[in-house]
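As a warm-up, study this chain.
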Amino acid sequence: MRVLMISPHPDDIEISCGGLVAQLTREGHVVELVMVTGEGDLTMQHSKVTVTWGERKLEQEQAAEVLGISKVHWLNFAPASKFDTQPISKLVTALDAVLAEGWDEAYIPLPSHAEDHNVVWKACLAALRPTKADSLNVYAYEQPTQFHGEQLGFAINCTRYVELTEHDMAVKLEALGKHGSQVSTRAGTLVGLAGVVKLAEMRGMQIGVKYAEAYLPLKIVQKVKA
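Now compare it with the structure written out below.
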């Protein structure tokens, strides 16, 4: 199976889907990552620390290696927190080119309080339009800090749960730890290492296991068997 993970920024996939990716690659599936963020240093709002683009890119490549991701597609769309400065059609075109390579599943970010995530959500829906990705299963992934009521007009609940083994969780945390510029200033937050564990434990409790990740199925294709 060929699986495509679409990420607005470095570390989003590790936070949201790291356990699933570890599971997929361990089972021999091909997983590739689309990174939307482009060149530009980032001054983080919560810590006022400035992180260079080169540092974030290296961290993402190291995290991808831990997860077993075979390729990172760097779209270089726009610097972090500035996705709204570029025409969304530019991102749709870039996503079209990657999706044309052929995939079985795609994972996209749900909209959130972060405008970058909203831009990627809208671009993904356009790129995954009929005739472009008809046979592709599509899931949306959550982040601990997001909410959905305002963006979607109604509250939603993720309905697909993926149980994570101790090994999957360990790989997820190791990969997230490679984003040192981010996790070093997020201790005690929902997107720090401890927060990610708490979310996995909560999702696990919802299905009676120790750890899990939750996803929203957007399109599931069931074909007639010959």
